[in-house]
Amino acid sequence: MNPSELRSTLALAGIFGLRMLGLFLLLPVFSIHARGLPGGEHALWVGLTLGIFNIVQACFYIPLGRLSDRVGRKVVVLWGLSLFVAGALICAAKDDLLWIALGRGIMGAGAVSAAISAWVADLTREQVRTRAMALVGGSIALSFALSLVMAAPIYRMISLSGIFVVLAILGVVAMLVTYYLLPSGKTNTPIAQASLREVFFRPELVRLNVGVFVLHATQVAMFLVVPRLLVQAGLPLSSHWEIYLPVVLLSFFCMAPILIFGEKKQKLRTILLLAIVLLLIAEILFTKTSSIISIAIALLIYFVGFNLLEALQPSLVSRFAKESKGTALGVYNTTQSIGLFTGAAIGGYLMDSHGELSVFVMGAVLLICWLIIAWSMRELPAKVPQSKDIAA
To answer: What domains does the chain contain, in order, with CATH numbers?
Structure first.
């Protein structure tokens, strides 16, 4: 990437990661904190308060993504970040489950992930776009790992309200970065948009939407069980970050050469299929793990595949929907949120009714189905040569 592309991609990856941090930072501490709140004795209400962020996002991804195709990415991202800040301040203002749910819903209404991904596509050449998407996708995994490390210490120092204040401050910083440092992209030029129906049913996009649904459904279901496996293996919950953080960071080093090879040799379809196979291997290994080392190895294999797919799939969506990137990525992110919700619901049901290992069996079956669907993917569109100063 040239300096302008790298600068813009890092800024957008930081904004993307901030929003995911708003989701992940609560996961290790919220259920404990909520026990002392009115209604916190009901797991359903606690779960809904956490889950409302994703459900509301799913409702707004497509409208905001489509709007960003029409009025520009910057306006939509600034609007979404303002809702993120407002929601965080509402959560911080009152230590009450209902008000926290309301604030989380408003935070989720600023669903700008599709607009950000489309903006990355606007500001990068096709030759480097997958690497740019890898940085954005990597911000998700890094946010998850950092949340596991930081959540408990921050909570002890400033409590839950303090965490929301920190998120609001970071949101304001992200707004300043968006307004002053990021170019507007190429969306000001009127273009003929594909209809929403066409975007929904274009075969290449359908395959990728199925993929992101399976990817995140199996992810959230898997992490209902993995912490329990680590505890059973003798690692206390407070020390789980000692596994997660090194595994996530090492997975970046392992996936980078694979991704670069796929781009240079134009073998992205092969790399995508390989990544699905890596996820499948990890799910199978989890059914046979009994030690911390074996769980760590399975997690490493999983995160290499996961990070590859987080980079590849949004990049491919942007290439298969050049005229309506925001709309297509809105559909893609909506499917992702539905996958997160479905994986949590079905994973919880399977754990209660059939035991923990059934979650990994379900994941393996879904991944095999995805592999069959992805196998028929056609050759990718040829890359269009562009000047290096596209993002200048």
So the answer is: 1-189 (1.20.1250.20), 191-376 (1.20.1250.20)
**For residues 71 and 58, is the Cβ–Cβ distance under 8 A?**
no
Burial class (CB in 10 A: 0-12, 13-18, 19+), 236: exposed
Interacting residues of 249 by C-beta distance below 8 A, sequence separation 6+: 145
Please report, for residues 79, 239, 377, the alpha-carbon distance to residue 364 in angstroms, rounded to integers and kept in the order given: 39, 28, 20
Residue type, 278: L
Q: How far apart are CA 265 and CA 87, in angstroms?
A: 45
Name the phi and psi angles at 195, rounded to 5.
-70, 155
Using CA atoms, how far apart are residues 337 and 343, in angstroms rounded to an integer? 10
Average the pLDDT over each of 128-132, 217-221, 366-370 and give the range with the smallest value: 128-132
Count CB atoms within 10 A of the CB of residue 166.
17
- Indicate whether this model's pTM tops 0.90: no
